[in-house]
Amino acid sequence: MNISCESPIQPICHPLLEAHNLQLFIKRDDLIHPEISGNKWRKLKFNLQIMQQQGKSELLTFGGAFSNHIHASAIAGKLFGFKTHGIIRGPLLDEANPTLNDAKRFGMTLHPVNRLTYRQRHDPHYLDELQKQFPNAYILPEGGTNLAAIKGCMELAQSLPPSDYIICPTGSGGTLAGLIEGTSNQTTLLGVAVLKQADYLIEEIKQLSKKAKEQHNWQLLCDYHDGGYGKFSDELWRFCQTFTHQYNIPLEPIYSGKMMYAIWQLIEQGYFASGSVITAIHTGGLQGLNGLKYRGLI
Ligand SMILES: Cc1ncc(COP(=O)(O)O)c(C=O)c1O
């Protein structure tokens, strides 16, 4: 069960970068695979190895109705020939939504649960019950974040050329934690929180990464959520469209676009020291654009 993790690094030229004497590169992890792209494959890679080692033949995981992780897990099941189960935050499922429609088409069994049940997704008793119900399943947390996922993101960090800053969008903090683990302390790691009031993630990132606990070369930027998870302004969406057109790099406004827009604002504020090299991670998630179109949000 493998997909090559190699992806290009694309330099960006822009007068704003020149004016601040900065070099910006984008690690195009969105190009890892047409469907399991970005941090989704990085996080799944070592989990699927463990699943095989444990002799499990099914994958069970959790997500919302438009989840990139649900989508990627379903495709992984189809590609590598294992059964997948998605515990989906419901209670009602619109199976015509492009994410769930694809997940079903790729063979995932969808299990809608109400919000109260979904809230138990980290509760050991609930997880024990699920394990009894699905004895052949390897259970993967929401968003795919666990220690094996950190290992995948650590591998990403180790594949990058030296930079003064590495920056990524942050949802659960798994990707940032892995990048911290895999990067020397000469580099500053920045996570752009895509949700409101994300400060609580700082502790969670420290739980996921020993280096995050010990080192101070990282920061979670909590002021660039643009309204909260799944929300975005017209301005941000226009920025994504212009960027896509100018550099032929597709951006969606929930993760990668929010990060790029934050980078632009940080540059304008003079956040980065002159002469810095910045590497931004494009974490994929482009399937989300179909869901936004479906809901008439773009
Ligand atoms: C496309 C994309 N980018 C970034 C993230 C955030 O990653 P993490 O949850 O590891 O912080 C996610 C969510 O998992 C995602 O789907």
Explain what this protein looks like in three dimensions.
- This protein is of the alpha/beta class and 298 residues long.
- The protein is 41% helix and 18% strand.
- It has helices at residues 15-19, 39-53, 68-80, 98-105, 115-118, 124-133, 147-158, 174-181, 201-208, 210-214, 234-247, 256-268, 288-294; strands at 9-12, 23-27, 58-63, 83-89, 108-113, 137-140, 165-170, 188-193, 218-221, 277-281.
- The strands form two sheets. A six-stranded mixed beta sheet has the order 1-2-10-7-8-9.
- The longest helix is centred in the N-terminal third of the chain and has 15 residues, at 39-53.
- The two termini are 35 Å apart.
- Bound molecules: pyridoxal-5'-phosphate.
- Residues 38-39, 68-69, 143, 145, 169-176, 255, 283-285 line the site of pyridoxal-5'-phosphate.
Query: What count of helical segments does DSSP give?
Result: 13
For the report, how would you describe the main beta sheet? Answer: 6 strands, mixed
CATH architecture of the largest domain: 3-Layer(aba) Sandwich
Write down the Rg.
19 Å
Strand content: 15-25%
Q: Quick recap of the structure?
A:
It is built from 13 helices and ten strands. It is of the alpha/beta class and 298 residues long.
